[in-house]
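Hey, can you fold this?
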Amino acid sequence: MLRPPGILSALAERLRADPGRPLVTLYDDATGERVELSAATFDNWVCKLANLFADDWELEPGERLAVLMPTHWQSMVSIVAAWTAGLVVALDPDVGVSASVVGPPSRTGPRAERHVLACSLRPFAQAEPAPLPPGWLDFANEVSPQPDALIMPAAAASDAAALVAPGGLLTHAELAARGRAMADDLGLAPGGRLITDLNPAEQVGLDAALLAPLATGSSVVLLVNVTIARRRLLAAQEQATCSRWSDG
């Protein structure tokens, strides 16, 4: 399967080496939800979303897509799907974009010119029960029916822009370097397991919860609405090898 070089080549290698091993595990103690995505399942969602972006929405490589989401696995697959479709991810709502992926409680929308995809964040990627603003589409209805394989693979150069960051644009190669540097900072060795409550749709969380695990062939446990005491329990239960918390 064709993938852009840089950070996504690490995902391709993970799929070749060990597709069934967990890549992302999410706990939300407010709902009692535990979701675990293997590398293969994660990639299926990535392909579905990339097909929506490139085929249904006809977004061209280099166009910008905003991901404005709380801590969740759907934000991670949205970001990787955007890169897979050759798009540039924007984490800043004030950056002009062609399309957006948003989660609750947003109901006003960012500056998306053509498309907004809403994620309910309900278990099993269920549809949003409340009415969406006019023109918005629901993740459950639009993404789930898409094929699990890429329809229109996009080949991006390693020096192609991948992320709109506060300091400017970052390339696919620079994202891979950031992932390796963050893994060193976390103490996340190849095959390790990070536990964190950082949001992958924010810059620090992106580096720690998404780029570092991908760059090292590791996995991540995302915690939402979890107490400090519960963190320790889950870290032991999930055999975490390192941690990083938003409160230090």
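Oh, and this one too while you're at it.
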Amino acid sequence: MRRIALFFVLVLVLAGLIVPPVAAAPSLQGQVLITSPGVNEEVRGLVPVIGSASVPGFQYYKLEYGVGPNPTDWALVDRMFDAAVINNQLAVWNTNAVPDGVYSLRLRAVKQDGNYDEFSLRGVIVSNTRPTSTTTVTPTETPGEQATPAPGATPAAPGTPAPTATPVTVGPAGPLAPPTATPTIGAPARQSNVPFDLDPKGWSQAFVFGVMAMGAAIAVLGIVFAVRRLL
């Protein structure tokens, strides 16, 4: 009997390990929320309203606006929407159609049975006519270049006109001297007493004297050779 009891216990334990647990049913709680714009935020022009509108048994949602932080009357923004929205654009609010001031927004998600979930955002500031605050940058004046005074010079007082340059003409101190004639370079004149000027008439005499001198020299050499042979 004990073995049979232990066998059934083991079977139940194994069955519990094999059969997966049943998943928990998802929560049916919806979301009705405006995430943008925020409280005390300034808006202008066409303002996209961001948020969620989703409830169990969803039928439609509507976005409304009212004047002041605690409105008694509400006006519809755009129209009623029959599709649920989660973390997306709910509607576009045209603030150009209303005066500047403080407004409130109200979001209602209506169920099939007529009940609804609601979210209110109070203190949205519409500012279409007031200019957007911008930071103005004042340009810094850059001083112009100033001439550096020469060493030892006295700086001019404020308001003193700048000195004007005086033209100076440079010329000769006395009368000009008469012009000197420029010599012309030409071929040198031939002179008659040049030592290299030869006379053709004396050529014949010089030739005769040369021949005689040459003959005398040959004769002397002949005598010298003859005497050397005799010795």
